Amino acid sequence: MNLTRIYSMRVPLENIINTKDEQLILENIRRCARLVGVKLFRISLWHKSLTQKDIKEFIKRNEHLLFEINTRITKQVEYAWFVIDTENEDGSRSRYRWKGDVLSGLVEYVNLVKALPSFKEEKRYGKRGNK
Question: What is the DSSP string of 49-89?
């Protein structure tokens, strides 16, 4: 049986949109996607109270990057492999959770992925595990 690992991440969109670090955060998300492989990466940008207008403007500003990585913008709380929980209020299921700001959470995501034995083996032997 061949199970594909998906290194999904959920980030609160309110902590990205219209902030001074918006582009820096998005570039770091792109870095995360490239680290694990774009096909194995999925990001859910979760929000509670943003208007449709704010979201459309965000998409228009960052369309190229959002298209490049597997992005979903949603109000629904769903399972993610790694959750960045900035306000300690996200009660959803996840494998790993970071409680703190988004940029620090992205750094922790990278550190976690690099520390996984399966990730180290893939980098050492290639995607199929061949020597």
Answer: S--HHHHHHHHHHHHHHHHHTTEEEESS---EEEEEETTS-
pLDDT digits (tens, 9 = 90+) for 39-74: 889 999 999 889 999 999 999 999 999 999 989 999
Q: Are strands 7-12 and 94-99 parallel, antiparallel or unpaired?
A: unpaired
CATH class assigned to 7-124: alpha beta
| Segment 96-106 mean pLDDT | 93
Point out which residues pair with 99 in neighbouring strands. 85
The first and second tokens of residue 52, run together, are 């449709």
Strand-pair partners of 43: 9, 71
DSSP structural state of residue 6: -
The whole-number pLDDT of residue 45 equals 94
